[in-house]
Design a protein that fits this description.
By secondary structure, the protein is mostly helical. The chain contains two helices and no strands. Helices cover about 85% and strands about 0% of the residues. It is flat, with a radius of gyration of 16 Å.
């Protein structure tokens, strides 16, 4: 039950942070940094997915 609570809390925190970032003007340095970080995380997730897919095909 504790892991579930932690996951819910982290999810809510991430959602609140995303809302705060989206409310900033597009030329805000913090928003630009958050966009870059999100792009890097997305790239890493795709790479991980590709690697897992390759391993499953073997």
């Amino acid at each position: 039950m504790q892991v579930k609570s932690l996951a819910i809390t982290m999810g809510l925190g991430a959602a609140a942070g995303a809302v705060a970032i989206l409310m900033m003007p597009k030329n805000n340095p913090t928003r630009k940094l958050a966009d870059k970080a999100a792009a890097k995380v997305e790239d890493a997730a795709y790479k991980l997915g590709d690697k897992l897919e390759q391993k499953l095909e073997m």
